[in-house]
UniProtKB/TrEMBL annotation:
Residues 315-384 form the 4Fe-4S ferredoxin-type domain. Residues 393-483 form the Lactate utilization protein B C-terminal domain. This is Iron-sulfur cluster-binding protein. Keywords: 4Fe-4S, Electron transport, Iron, Iron-sulfur, Metal-binding, Repeat, Transport. It comes from Streptomyces boluensis.
Length: 496
């Protein structure tokens, strides 16, 4: 299995195979139900959870509206603290910057903190093309890397694997990447974790370059923040001589007071913990302590285009907690790989099409990867109305037409099957614009109702296979109204 998402089929095609994988479904069901129950308990402990949620929403919205103020302030703060700031408009530019920075050190390997931004831009593949090996150090990311796999969850990238599968992966491939797994390795969590710890320890002690993302950036001080549960992030952020952080421009908060809100809501929403086990913060460089060279790569890669959409921009509030994945019935059954993106689940269904555009088959299908049940909105710690954005993006997919993507004019084409839907909507629009034609059509439909099929033909067959086709009434509503109430505005018999 390839480690990238390039060339993935549309969501319905990918999900068709995934829902038939009994092992995958069992793994996902067990993991998501466990995490969701723990989260609910942790959140219930706080009487002011609703207020914290609203505060997070407001802080994020305020910051996004004023990025033109806070991003320059962040750059000034980072430079003042001894760091260097680079601006990357897209993935290619970000990869060139990071690759060049690693090459300048003369090193041929790097250690990485779990980072969705670097996965988004395909950094590992870009480094490999230049002969540089990137070692993932998060346990779940290590499992994915050793298995030549793809991440399937925001918080737990290897959630689709069970302990037996992980044991087999370690035994089979760990030696190809460094220290081999013990010959008598079992599938007990303690032994698997110990094998990973010993395997990674030599990399931590040897690496001269570390690469990270960040959960938050504080504009006032230039401080970057990584929250994690294993301690691998702390090793990557403190031991190397050079640290390179690739961070999306939306990860900004104005002040430490704002950061306080998210350090309460993120742990409870993601790992169901009252506070995060490891919260690492760094501000520039300090002589004789930690990395002596720090580079911050600020990544756009479609975020500015997303910000321009008044409805869709709320996706940029996301703090990557994964709570929406753990309650989503579609994700639970289809798994993360079906979404064809490093961002799976409900948030991926609205974020990926905006960052990448809806020109491709997979991105045009993602807004439909939902039942619109609303569970994702209920658990979101920053109140992203994912169902609202899904409906908004569906409208954009069906309408097609011109758009601007990363400064270039493109044409959005409806995904396969949506051309007919767009034609039907246009026909309905014409009918509703001409009341006489609409009334005539309603009467014809009512009088021919005995001949209406119980199953729809063509593409509509899949819909009617699991639903009853609504029965046509004996007469249109407007005819019934005129017959029973008269033509006036009052009761039967005319106007009073």
């Amino acid at each position: 299995m390839s480690g990238t998402f390039v060339g993935m089929p549309s969501f319905p095609e990918a999900a068709h195979d995934a829902v038939r994988d009994a092992t995958l479904r069992a793994n996902l069901r067990h993991a998501t139900h466990t995490i969701r129950a723990k989260r609910a308990k942790a959140v219930a402990e706080l009487d002011d959870w609703a207020e914290l949620r609203e505060a997070g929403r407001q802080i994020k919205d305020h910051t996004l509206r004023h990025l033109d103020t806070y991003l320059p302030r962040l750059e000034e703060s980072v430079v003042r603290a001894g760091g260097t700031v680079h601006w990357a408009a897209d993935a290619d530019e970000a990869n060139r910057i990071v690759t060049g920075l690693v090459q300048a050190t003369g090193e041929r390997e790097v250690v990485k903190v779990k980072s969705m931004a670097t996965q988004e831009i395909g950094l590992n593949e870009a480094l490999a093309a230049e002969g540089i090996t990137a070692y993932e150090t998060d346990l779940a990311e290590l499992i994915v890397q050793l298995g030549d796999d793809r991440p399937s969850h925001i918080l737990v990238p290897a959630i689709h694997r069970n302990r037996g599968e992980i044991r087999d992966i370690f035994a089979r491939t760990m030696s190809e990447w460094g220290r081999p797994a013990p010959e008598d390795l079992t599938d007990t969590p303690a032994e698997l974790a110990e094998a990973a710890r010993l395997h990674l320890r030599e990399k931590f002690l040897r690496a001269k370059v570390g690469i990270s993302g960040a959960n938050f950036m504080v504009a006032d001080t230039g401080t970057l923040v990584v929250v994690e549960s294993e301690g691998n992030g702390r090793m990557c952020l403190t031991l190397p001589e050079t640290l390179i952080s690739v961070v999306g421009i939306e990860k900004l908060v104005p002040s430490w007071q704002d950061l306080e809100v998210f350090l309460q809501t993120l742990p409870r929403s993601s790992t169901a913990e009252r506070m995060n086990p490891y919260t690492s913060m760094w501000t520039g460089t300090t002589d004789g302590d930690g990395p002596q060279a720090f580079h911050l790569v600020l990544l756009d890669n479609g975020r500015t285009d997303t910000l321009a959409d008044e409805v869709g921009r709320q996706a940029l509030r996301c703090i990557r907690c994964s709570a929406c994945l753990n309650v989503c019935p579609v994700y639970e059954r289809a798994g993360g790989h079906a979404y064809g993106s490093v961002y799976p689940g409900p948030i991926g269904a609205i974020l990926s099409p905006q960052l990448r555009g809806t020109e491709s088959e997979i991105d045009a299908s993602l807004p439909y990867a939902s039942s619109l049940c609303g569970a994702c909105y209920e658990v979101c710690p920053v109140a992203i109305d994912i169902p609202e954005v899904l409906v908004h993006l569906r409208e954009r997919v069906v309408q097609g037409g011109p758009a601007t993507r990363r400064g270039k004019k493109v044409t959005l084409r409806p995904a396969k099957g949506h051309a007919a839907e767009r034609a039907a909507m246009r026909a309905a629009g014409l009918a509703f614009a001409h009341p006489g034609a609409l009334a005539f059509g309603q009467r014809i439909a009512a009088r021919t109702r005995r001949f209406h099929p119980r199953r729809l033909p063509g593409p509509g067959r899949a819909w009617s296979d699991s639903r009853a086709v609504p029965e046509m009434p004996a007469e249109p509503f407007r005819d019934w109204w005129q017959r029973t109430r008269g033509t006036g505005t009052g009761e039967k018999g005319g106007a009073k």
